[in-house]
Amino acid sequence: MALFSFRKPAAPAASGADLEAFLKGWSIEVMPRTAEKVADFRAILPLGTRVYIAHIEGTPIEEMVATAKRIGDEGFAVMPHFPARIIKDKATLTDWVSRYKDVGVRQGLMLAGGVATPHGEYHSSMQLLESGAFDGFERLHVAGHPEGNKDIDPDGSDRAVMEAARWKTAFAERTDAKMAMATQFCFDAAPVIAWVDRLKAEGVDLPVHIGVAGPAKLQTLIKFAIACGVGPSLKVLQKRALDVTKLLLPYEPTDVLNALAAHKAANPGFGIEQVHFFPLGGIKTNAEWVTANGGLSGKPARAA
Hints:
FAD-linked_oxidoreductase-like, oxidoreductase activity, alpha/beta, Methylenetetrahydrofolate reductase, single chain, oxidoreductase, 8 strands, about 300 residues
């Protein structure tokens, strides 16, 4: 049973080569507590893989920096989150950036953060970008929302989101740092394709690193999808839950990635540059799936 309902009658089919090419340079997200469960990232990830470190409210900066140092020392590009709404003031931001620089970090993901009330003077990623604190960083990524963000646009539109995206594109033109838009995870290719095309039409030319949920139990994914505000593509999971033959099987991102890989192969100028995984079913499980499905793009640095 197909999991997608595309409007176009015939979607191109991906080849194994298409998927391998699409997964090249993929990244993955961890938290300090999940990173602790991995004995050696070199046993599961290709050398140089970008590893985002999610900064959840309440996590001490010392734990974040220690995790960044450990993963960087193992040979991976580290990109910690900088959630604006949990950063108290410029002094705190400057301290965080300095600590990360001391352990070799030169990349960061700017985002507002899922906190209703800001802890201090920052409430948006644009304020962080304008702060000047990230001089010397080689990469500055920002967040993207293919299915909208009601925290930003409560009316359900994407007016404010698109306005911010255009501002970030203009900022990218005046900075030396490489920029890209890393997105929330989605489960359906159709709204992603429409959104990426719309970005281009709106004059937003930041490369998209599309967020995809890694293999996980269906119940786990539905819980995270609801909590994170994933919209239209949640129907993909709900439809799967109604199929008793699939209800107990783990979800795998094969269909959505094959569809996106085929679209990219047929449209080389399509704005998705890389895939970013949210390992909701575990880092090792996610990495093993990429190794099994991505050919050389998933080959770990060394055998476990």
